[in-house]
Amino acid sequence: MKTIGIVTSGGDAPGMNAAIRAVTRIAAYNGMSVIGFERGWEGLISGLVRPLNARSVSGIINMGGTILHTTRCPHIQTSEGRAKAAACLAKHKVDGLVVIGGDGSFRAARALGEKIDTLMVGVPATIDNDVYGTDETIGFDTAVDTAIGMVDKIRDTAISHERMFIVEVMGRKRGFLASMVGLTVGAEIILVPEVPFKEQRLFDIIRANESMGKRSAIIIAAEGIGDTRKLALDIEENTGLETRLSVLGYAQRGGSPTARSRYLASEFGSKAVELLSDDKGGLITTLREGRVMSFSLEESVRTEKPLDPAILKLAEILAT
Amino acid sequence: MKTIGIVTSGGDAPGMNAAIRAVTRIAAYNGMSVIGFERGWEGLISGLVRPLNARSVSGIINMGGTILHTTRCPHIQTSEGRAKAAACLAKHKVDGLVVIGGDGSFRAARALGEKIDTLMVGVPATIDNDVYGTDETIGFDTAVDTAIGMVDKIRDTAISHERMFIVEVMGRKRGFLASMVGLTVGAEIILVPEVPFKEQRLFDIIRANESMGKRSAIIIAAEGIGDTRKLALDIEENTGLETRLSVLGYAQRGGSPTARSRYLASEFGSKAVELLSDDKGGLITTLREGRVMSFSLEESVRTEKPLDPAILKLAEILAT
Amino acid sequence: MKTIGIVTSGGDAPGMNAAIRAVTRIAAYNGMSVIGFERGWEGLISGLVRPLNARSVSGIINMGGTILHTTRCPHIQTSEGRAKAAACLAKHKVDGLVVIGGDGSFRAARALGEKIDTLMVGVPATIDNDVYGTDETIGFDTAVDTAIGMVDKIRDTAISHERMFIVEVMGRKRGFLASMVGLTVGAEIILVPEVPFKEQRLFDIIRANESMGKRSAIIIAAEGIGDTRKLALDIEENTGLETRLSVLGYAQRGGSPTARSRYLASEFGSKAVELLSDDKGGLITTLREGRVMSFSLEESVRTEKPLDPAILKLAEILAT
Amino acid sequence: MKTIGIVTSGGDAPGMNAAIRAVTRIAAYNGMSVIGFERGWEGLISGLVRPLNARSVSGIINMGGTILHTTRCPHIQTSEGRAKAAACLAKHKVDGLVVIGGDGSFRAARALGEKIDTLMVGVPATIDNDVYGTDETIGFDTAVDTAIGMVDKIRDTAISHERMFIVEVMGRKRGFLASMVGLTVGAEIILVPEVPFKEQRLFDIIRANESMGKRSAIIIAAEGIGDTRKLALDIEENTGLETRLSVLGYAQRGGSPTARSRYLASEFGSKAVELLSDDKGGLITTLREGRVMSFSLEESVRTEKPLDPAILKLAEILAT
After folding, report:
1. Does B244 contact A at CB distance below 8 Å?
2. Ranges of CATH 3.40.50.460 domains, chain A
3. pLDDT tens per residue, range C25-64
4. Which member of A6, B311, C214, D185 has the lowest number of beta carbons within 10 Å of its beta carbon?
5. Closest Cβ–Cβ partner in A25, A256, A314 for C270
6. What is the mean pLDDT of residues D237-254?
7. Sign (positive or negative) of CA dihedral C247, C251, C257, C261
8. Which of C38, C71, C156, C258 would best serve as a mutation to test chain D binding (most D beta carbons within 10 A)?
9. Annotated catalytic sites of C, by residue?
């Protein structure tokens, strides 16, 4: 293993820079060269390379976003795109590629890795936490903390005005973020895409709360549950209680990573280089049973990560 | 002046609690009694009173929202509502009423004050900063800081993805918040209700930026400028650049007040009691020429506060 | 199990309130009564009790400190103190006591539990993370995040002035906090009580950094490593580089808990009630292998938790 | 006015970068060249120059510290040092020099400006707020907000443990920071260098508070008031109440500037260029009577800024 490439792909996540730093410095420490590819897969296809060394990743551990930039790049899903990427890796003699991103990025890495010698190692970094094989992804903890900071502020207004609030958090398909945010802000109700709900039941809970003297409530909803605007109107109409909607939006993605996101980025980045040093590819770095390990890339992208229903149940009891 | 009443009305603003604390403690220090009315004007109409003393406002200086709760109460705009409120003030022998809120609250206070002996003093507290006669309102500084904290995070994502972002901040009618946020995050473009704009000009600026190598930009838009969702689509269509919308929403209203909001609340609260002690009413507390003073309530509600165009001009030059 | 008691003891930690809330609500959900003892063990000795129910723990999940207050209470270490505490538990018919605190609190719980029927369950909550049997304690994550927020600010000044900074973090005996803070701020050097160091080696590292053009550095030191004031002077004298000391102090203990601290508090609180419901005592709740479990109280207090040297090694490589 | 120089000098303050950005962009907008001098006055003496343009100050508005670095440089106080600095300004044809810093920096600017043609304009930037002629300096608001954030956390611990806390904030000679922090955290006692105090009076206040049931208190002390460590011991000994000391330290200096610090930096930077464009020197930019203006540099450095005793009086009443 002489030369390692790094690409950040898909949606950005806080801690991606800390992971770039870790991969680069551990590789440099072990005498390897490091090349960064810019703008996600587009950088491999168009040859946007940036040599990285210990100094060029200085001062980025606490920065949100990714210094390598990222895009969503459908081109990598074509055989032509992959051929160009393969040629680029060959040209720069990249023995191992560290792919920092989420599920979609890993799918592309698997397809690309099938036909070439460059070893692929995925480093899970997405605020959605939806990568099978790891209990946690880089950036998830930061996104949760950012979201609860905003919800704590909204709670001030909810209580002052004695209103219902629906707070929509990110998560088009999955409810990991919504369920953790909901549990830790003490939300009265949590709605996730994985668990169908009946509006009538919501109205019942809200009315039951009101009859106990609770005049305000926070409903945390993943964006994937449907039209939250309509839901707010329906609640207001059916319960007679003022209901507001707040969509947290992109602020959840950015910001300086929490210690935990930086820690995970450092450990995952280190593990990725260790795997490549041992000539192991087709893997992702993972946190399982409290330890940093590796897991099959193939199996990760093939399997849907289950949402733990116990957290929703706990949140429900604790909100009573 | 023996008994002072306090009401918080309209949208909540960070620092309202610090103002309640200041009014209560200064009044108590001067030997007066203090009565809080709950849920804004509704509290005066329905007689929801809570006696306040130095101890009951302990530990609230750093809390967002208002412990007295608030509502928007159309009832106070009727003569019947005002009659009930007047009766309530008479019943509790309230000599002076401190109204903590914004423009709408002061309008109600003026109307109510016309026919009764209770003196009215307004304490400007609104994140919109749209009260004529004062350079700043309680809560404005906090809302700006909260908003720039979120925009700084969004900037991480904007740069990483090399995207345009429209960030919608509060302000249905006025652009005070938008212009200050825009200036202090270094927004490329600021849109406020007071200044009409042509979409074509936006496209030109964005393309000029792009030709200089700026691949991402932040557009700060007050909610009152129109349909920001449509604007994002139009920009994407006309410039070919990915454009996202983020609506900051209610998180801008809450949270622990900044030092400046707490300071202003303490000074305004103190001034309000001083005015009432001197048997002066029909006034609001103000910050003008860097000093805490008073100003005619009548003139304040009758006049629209102008937006300083110099800030927009400065922001435009600084964003080049 | 009809009545559960709760006591928070030792140094306060962010998330204690979230744990009180969880124990109370889970217990109430299961039909049990809950009694809070105030001011740590003193509350059991002096009979300072406060009945708790689902409503009385409302709105505290995001509050730092502990609503039950806490003290360091040497009296509980005497047989007389324990006798009084036992009598108090008997008087209030407390079947199970949840002790929220650290190592010292658990030691007292074990001693107290030996002679009485009340079952003891410990919930680890301390920013020091020094409880054997659990990978993490409530409050640790928050303290790390608070500390790195402060160090990130100090880094601004360190770089602007091109200075060395020693930042002393809490930890009289153990280096868990220092090592995690050091890793996640990218500290050039980390000093912990568990690993003896020679000043000469520090000087060498600092000079080596300087020769590579690094004119500023952050040294994270646990308070237990000795006289940091002297160390700063020694570094300045031996390297000729301006060196400043910053002691982070008590701000590390307080503040709104992070999502992770709230999560852990919710899970541990729930687990504690589950154990007591099953008539199990003499246990602590733990996070091990990524799961919430229980562990012998006896073994926990008898064993010193080892510091993982791999984190220090990783931090050292990543700081190069 | 063709070429403007910028130097940041003395202790760093949040917002210095925003000021560098404003000066550079306003100057560039008006067709001038800009040169930055690095490491404060040392840069003028040793010729450490860095050309600045609109692009080189991109992305710094929200960064703490100063990209130009700063030092305390006694050399500029010698005639030899000033001769070298004058020669450097002449060599680079600097018509106007913007000095971003505090009192000491302005003193040096005045001395340097006496013998040369380069016009001097001071931009007040110091967390101490101790510059005569301006109501506020860049960085002051941020330092106050950072400090109150830390004190709010310490308050959690103070209340939980029912303890006294002395919190030492920056301010070797002046109490502007301490008095504003004290007022806005609701400190029970504020100690500043400008107002001598008797320990006995402190003990009396603390005992009076205790007799009213207040078991915890926050004392905000400027570092210039003397030995806070001894004071803590004296209070503990004389009142019998546990008393802790927390020195906030260098974290007060760094961090992303608040909106207000960024606003002031933008306005001051703009004003500085405007003054130089009008061939005006020997001035500082100021905020007076709520407006951005200029003020005599000579008079500013010759006069000590008075501390407003009304703030301390207000804080005292509000803390009862």
Report:
1. yes
2. 143-253
3. 999 999 999 999 999 999 999 999 999 999 999 999 999 9
4. C214
5. A314
6. 95
7. positive
8. C156
9. 128
Q: Which residues of D17-29 are buried (b: 16+ CB within 10 A; e: fewer)?
A: bbbbbbbbbbbbe
pLDDT for the residue numbered C214: 86
> Would residue A227 show up in a list of annotated catalytic residues for this protein?
no
Confidence of residue B302 (pLDDT cuts 50, 70, 90): very high
Q: Which helix (H) or strand (E) element contains residue A33? A: strand A33-37
Q: How far apart are CA C73 and CA C114, in angstroms?
A: 19
Q: Which CATH class name applies to C141-253?
A: alpha beta
**pLDDT, tens digit, 9 for 90 and up, residues B5-52:** 999 999 999 999 999 999 999 999 999 999 999 999 999 999 999 999
Token readout for D195 is 């107002």
Query: Are residues B266 and D318, on separate chains, in Cβ contact within 8 Å?
Result: yes
| Best to test chain A binding among B71, B157, B256 (most A CBs inside 10 Å) | B157
Q: Could you please state the CATH topology (level 3) that the domain comprising C3-139+257-302 is classified under.
A: Rossmann fold (3.40.50)
Assess contact for A37 and A7: CB atoms under 8 A.
yes
Cα–Cα distance for residue pair C237/C230, rounded to 1 Å = 10
What is residue B191's predicted lDDT score, i.e. its pLDDT? 98
The CA angle A152-A155-A157, to the nearest 5 degrees, is: 125
Q: Does the pLDDT of residue B89 top 90, yes or no?
A: yes
**What is the nearest CA distance from D251 to chain C, expressed in angstroms?**
5
Separation of alpha carbons A66 and B160, rounded Å: 6
Question: Pick from D221, D118, D124: which is nearest to D174 by CA?
Answer: D221
Among the partner-chain residues A29, A135, A267, the one whose CB lies closest to the CB of C320 is A29
The answer, yes or no, to whether residue B204 has pLDDT greater than 90, is yes
**Averaged pLDDT, C243-252:** 95
CA distance A177 to chain C (A): 11
Portion of chain A with pLDDT greater than 70, in percent: 100
Q: Is the per-residue pLDDT at A1 higher than 90?
A: no
What ipTM is given for this predicted complex?
0.97
Q: Where do you find CATH 3.40.50.450 in chain D?
A: 3-139+257-302
Distance from CA of A209 to the nearest CA of C (A): 12
Q: Do A259 and C141 touch (CB under 8 A)?
A: yes
Q: Residue C244 and residue C233: Cα distance in Å, rounded?
A: 8
* Structure tokens, B43: 């509290």
Q: Which residues contact D168 (CB under 8 A, 6 or more apart)?
A: D221, D222, D223, D228, D245, D246, D247, D248
Cross-chain residue pair C251–D70, CB shorter than 8 Å: no
- DSSP labels, chain B: --EEEEEE-SS--TTHHHHHHHHHHHHHHTT-EEEEESSTHHHHHHT-EEEE-TGGGTT-TT--S-TT-----GGGGSHHHHHHHHHHHHHTT-SEEEEEE-HHHHHHHHHHHTTSSSEEEEEEB-TT---TT-S--BTHHHHHHHHHHHHHHHHHHHHHHT-EEEEEES-SS--HHHHHHHHHHT-SEEE-TTS---HHHHHHHHHHHHHTT---EEEEEEGGGS-HHHHHHHHHHHH---EEEEE-GGGGT-SSPPHHHHHHHHHHHHHHHHHHHTT--SEEEEEETTEEEEEEHHHHHHSPPPP-HHHHHHHHHHT-
Determine whether domain A143-253 maps to CATH 3.30.530.20: no
Q: What is the pLDDT of residue A238?
A: 95
Say whether pLDDT at D292 is over 90. Answer: yes
